[in-house]
Amino acid sequence: MTEPAAPGQPGPHDASPNRVSRRQLLGLFGAGAAGAAVGAAAGAGVAVAATGADAGTGAAAAAYPFHGAHQAGIVTPAQDRLHFATFDVSTTLDRDGLVGLLQDWTDAAARLAQGLEVSEDGAVGGSDYAPPADTGEALGLPASGLTITFGFGPTLFEAGGIDRFGIAARRPAELTALPRFQGDALQPERGGGDLCIQACADDPQVAVHAIRNLSRIAFGRASLRWSQLGFGRTSSTSTSQQTPRNLFGFKDGTANVKAEETKDVAEHVWVAASDEPAWLAGGSYLVARRIRMIIENWDRVQLGEQEMLVGRSKGSGAPLSGGTEFTEPDFEAEGPTGTPLIDPASHVRLAHPTGNGGARMLRRGYNFVDGNDELGRLDAGLFFLSFQRSPEQFITVQRSLAADGLNEYLKHVGSAIFAVPGGIRPGEHVGQALFA
Ligand code: HEM
């Protein structure tokens, strides 16, 4: 934490609208002192205004542009922390009210991404006789690589046959509730939502501050439905990043779609201008699954069996067919006894594009531990997030994974899908093309 010393901290009585806030000062100073350390990711269309360290490696002071061709938080090098939330829009809100909310969220998010408070008055610059506009817990903290990504759920377009906002005809045909998958143990309180916000940052306080303040801005217009905190990214989304590990202890993200693979990103992640509907061009579909891991059972499994279930070596992440981490798996390779080196029921075999009509996706999940259950087992797992050009990509792979040996140690308890509109230009609000 870099809470600044009191001198220079604007107090409640020096609320000049033109003063440079402590957080602005920090940002300016950091940028000037360290220069713009723009990593390899920038060359791949990932604009990085970093202030000193490698992208996605815990660069506390990095700030990613909020505006651009695509929303930030998708190909952005996955940050270390997540606060994800879904919202239900109030039944009393009309179309203009919804647009107003999206405008207010956009304005606030653009400021937060720069390390600013939600408004100029902020936490301490307003009236002594009114609640502060910003809740204050991020005062003095840098932007911390914060990205805020908005999504629209199927129920925003039509709920119970009612077209609340006059957008039912504009719902993407593919934006429907996900089908039921084998083994699903979904809890209704961890599913769905009219809107979602994914806040990722390298500091958990910054991510939580973003969701808290955006929820607060929505007061009376949309209410929090469910939310999830995540730590320890379980994917890399840039070749500049090390592959992290999930709570099974395996490297996760090795074969992910990476930002630098611009052709694959265009083919598998972004909705193209030639796809339907036109308003979603440059956007994507986001699938969220809260996957509980039965880690106490997993921890009693022999190393060899763990590796067989995944299809990769636990230490290096290399496929069991040989090579190093980034060697392509060879599913034909056989051992001395003629059995495949990579088990046909292994996760990697079943999730690989070869068995799924070429389907790939950009995975961007996080580990979670939310206390423990009544049996004394950790309520732990992987909050799976994936971005894809069509929900069909996720559906195809998830159906293949019905045969996955890992399922004995997994339980899908939460699920949601959202259409993520394309990038936001200055002066626009998120999803503006939908309401045009
Ligand atoms: C808690 C549940 C899961 C765990 C522990 C897990 C773990 C892993 C691991 C260790 C890898 C190998 C490293 C890598 O390439 O990233 C992997 C790959 C992969 N996983 Fe998962 N995964 C889980 C759930 C899912 C789900 C729900 C999907 C999608 C429906 C999925 C899709 C994939 C894909 C597409 C790959 C890359 C396969 C390839 O091209 O080689 N995973 N996963």
Question: How does this structure look, described?
Answer:
This protein has 436 residues and is α+β, with helices and mostly antiparallel strands. The chain has one domain (26-436). 21% of the residues lie in helices and 17% in strands. The chain has 11 helices and 9 strands. Strands 1, 2, 3, 4, 5, 6, 7, 8 and 9 form a 9-stranded antiparallel β-sheet that branches. A hairpin with a 5-residue loop joins strand 7 and strand 8 (378-388). The longest helix has 18 residues, at 95-112. Residues 1-59 have low confidence and may be disordered. Protoporphyrin IX containing FE (HEM) is lined by residues 246, 248, 250-256, 289, 291, 293, 310, 312, 347-348, 351-353, 361, 382, 384, 394, 397-398, 401, 410.
Helix-strand sequence: HHEHEHEHEHEHHHEEEHEH
The average pLDDT is 89
Structural class: alpha+beta
Give the percentage of residues in beta strands.
15-25%
Number of beta strands: 9
Residues in helix, %: 10-25%
Enumerate how many helices there are, as a single number. 11
Query: What integer value in Å does the Rg equal?
Result: 22 Å
Spans of at least 5 consecutive residues whose pLDDT stays below 50 are: 1-59
Number of domains: 1
Largest sheet properties: 9 strands, antiparallel
Chemical compounds bound to the protein: protoporphyrin IX containing FE
> What is the distance, rounded to the nearest whole angstrom, between the alpha carbons of the first and last residues?
43 Å
Name the shape in a single word. globular
Main location: other
Keywords: Heme, Iron, Lyase, Metal-binding, Oxidoreductase, Peroxidase, Signal
Function: Involved in the recovery of exogenous heme iron. Extracts iron from heme while preserving the protoporphyrin ring intact.
EC number: 1.11.1.-
